[in-house]
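[Solved] Which block belongs to which protein?

Original post:
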Amino acid sequence: MKETYHICHSSHEEVLFRSERDLIIGFNYLAVTAFDTDSTLFADGFLSTHHHEVVRTDDPLTFGRRYRFAYTRYFNAKYCRKGSIGENRQFIMKVDGLYHTQALLNYVLRQGLHHGLSATPFGYKHCSANSVFREELGRIVNPPLIAEWDRHIYLPRNVKVPLKYRMASDGLLLREDVEDTAYVESVYVSPRNFLFQMNRISDEKDIAEQQKENSMPVVTLEAVERGVPSFDPSKALVAEQGRVNKSRMTDIELCHIIDDVILPERFFRGVQESSIYLIAERARADLGNSIWKEYRNAQYRKSNSVFSGRIITEDQLRRCLCIKK
């Protein structure tokens, strides 16, 4: 029997997605998993270290494992890596009832906001926020589509999805085609309530509504983000007010510097390494120390650097270089 679940796959010691393309491929593989398992996607949110999805399926464990296996094959092939990626255990929560479902959708759709990546849920593109009430909110956009014969580049090998799943020129399957946005809109009832929910501050009223509805576990920010590395609920609640530190460098930006700037420079100096996973762990630690030194110099000596005016953390550098603590 199909029921609605929240599934979260996270990684503590390394990022799951090193580039914008990885995030695109990540969603496409999720769409393929839903299609292959006869499951229905309602919403998703992808970040560098984890991703959330709201899905109706009869076997959430199999759903999560199949997705993880497919994406791991892609990631390992691209970055010359071995072994499974992310935590072995996926966090699964069953939900039932209107208020429980709405609360879950709220948290998944507001991923960019809660993690300080955008001032509103609609400013973060790697989630489903812009796929709901598109006509009513004036968000109907017809992006240029990729040629049909190039679709396989952004999909798992020997896998087909319905042609009704349009693919944008950047390789992303359009969320409004893949996900059951009609159901999501029925949960919110109206565009006005949807906008209210996207901008509301988390409070006890939300919990009280769920407790009155049924005896299922209450959906809270802490429950949804359980197991996410370095998650601080207090910072997420501050971020709900739309306070974004634009000086903070994202994991994707830092990985771009490592993969597309630093590694090619090492290559031209005679070091034959096209991926951080081809660098010995001790050498990665040395590289991390070198990057941290450059970052500190850029902060205090105002040197001309890619890190000038930007903020990174030691934990962030470790996971982008896959350095174990």
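(Second protein starts here: sequence line, then its structure tokens.)
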Amino acid sequence: MENTVGFIGVGAMGEPMAASLLRAGFALTVCAHRNREPVERLVALGARDGTDPAGVARASACVITCVPDAPQVDEALFGEHGATHGAAPGTLFIDMSTISPVATREFDRRLRAAGFRFVDAPVSGGTARAKTGKLTIIVGASDEDVRDAEPVLRAMGTPNHVGGVGMGEVVKLVNQIIISNTMIANIEALTFAAKAGADIDATLAVIGTATGSNYLLQNWLPQSWLAGSHAPGFMLDLLRKDLAAALDSARAIGVPMPASSLAYQLYTASSGEGHGRDDYTSVAQFYERAAGVKVRKKA
């Protein structure tokens, strides 16, 4: 069964990740977290429908979970039809969700007590890189478990081993802290520029060569907010969930995070206005409304 992989949670990220595993030649068994349509598309590509997490685990030497948050991971692993009820002893579980490191370490404890192995491997890169199999994968696990997980992970992107179980989630949350605050800084600065009468294209060109340059400013905002679109690239509510996990972890270890706390409130306000399923650039609408400007690149 070395080549058999199970995938639980084939949503916006999970479906293209599962498709990458099929392209790499793995015998794949899948089940839905909520929506069955991705399962049907993957079955058409050669996957097997495992019906539920227990059925997926029964057919797999390695089981991946990719679901919204820790309660869903818990249900997928330990619920009434959870994967642990179908898994053979020694099964390698890989959680690719973004959740609290505290929850991750508790899942590791429970799985190992039941005779299983565990790796946390959250990803970065969004759906575009998930489709090309070029995700950044941030791995927390023992050296032995990383070695066994690596062929599976390499089918979906580039694994980076950053320490023991839980450290994958810690480093992923570092990324989420940075992007959530950087997005707010970019939006605030460009709204200031527009209100002051600056040419946005000229401003972007100058800042692109200056110390304020950053990936979001140069690569994401020009094709989203500054082009007049908040179509989902990374849903605001998912980033808000990740920020909540980071803030919970920070409280547990005594790290003050006032900037991230404010960012969380801004994203929460935008979600409350109905933008939770939009891209997280939709937080810009608060700034535009308050300043009385629309911030756009030239057509």
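Accepted answer:
You had them paired correctly. Confirming on the second one: The longest helix spans residues 167-195.
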